[in-house]
Amino acid sequence: MAVINPPAWQQAPSYPARNDRLALSGLLTYPGNASDEANPLRIRPGVKPSYQNYQLKVRAAGTPNMTVIVSGGTVFVDQRETGGSGAYICANDGDVTLNVNPAGGAGQYRKDTVVASVYDAEYSGALSQWQLEVIQGPYAASAGATVRGTLPANCVVLADIALAPSQSSVAAANITDVRTYGCAIGGVLPVSSAAVPARPHPGQMFYYTDTDRLMYGTLAGTLSEVQKTPGAWTSWTPTWTTSTGLRLPSYGNAAVNCRYSKTGRDVKFYMDITFGTSTNFGSSPTSADNWVFSLPVAAAVALTPAGTAHIEPGNGQRASMAMAQVNTGAADISLHMSGPRVDGSATVAGVVDSITPFVWGSTMRLVVHGQYEAAS
């Protein structure tokens, strides 16, 4: 390995196309995979992100037949025949129709693959071009046993096509979109949360396409979530259950007004529940079971205070007080009584349930204000 000269676009008699590719590669995202660390000039190949990620999307023909259509777009294809020869930038300005080879006979299943591939005679073969093509897979005895065929060395996979025996057309249900995406350094990379690069560079932004979250790489090599609107409140409905999972309550026609905000790991939450005529409180007065309400996001520490509960029976009576405590498992809270009953006649101990601090009924209200540290 050595310093590569001359640098791209320097006035010089001549220099190879590789230098231009490497100049463009320097502006593209690092792949972030352990397998690429031995080749530091590589980039993350993939389709250029776009509105609803429509670029180079594979779809069935309007009237399904043995073709598929690839929409226009741009794709970054890394040169992978050598250790690091830069990225090809390939553009398609409109729909391209590709033929799919006829399906096999009885007992023959197949997985074909649509790819954007680059052939470069400088390194192998006689072609110097890029193309969209369908790579036929080998036959298998069942759909679950199918695998892709041998793909070109320099390609980006766009879609897989499932073909059953004697199939005569390719419908939308036969096409699986498997595009990955590439972007410039500093750009936001769309990616499934199950396929995030293991080695994000510090500050690299990722948009999780399946969970609608925005993440970024840290100096430690981990990922942290970006709050899309810091301090904004989001509605949620707590799961209402019991400490034993028996005699389960249900909201019925209760008015449930619950919301939370999360900034970093700081979570604030507000629960306001006015029970209705069809609310099921979960257990009879002779077999009470402690109530449990789920948190909007898991807490970092269990068995710690998380807020204050106001228990309002209505009819002009004053509210009882309880402490909201994070339960074992850190995913929910229970409400521990911290004062006398609303009529002041006795002290009620224990955890709020269908008969504590009184027998619950319609129009009664439960309000909880709280704050805690999230687990992530």
UniProtKB/TrEMBL annotation:
Recorded superkingdom: Bacteria
Protein name: Tail fiber protein
Species of the source: Streptomyces asoensis
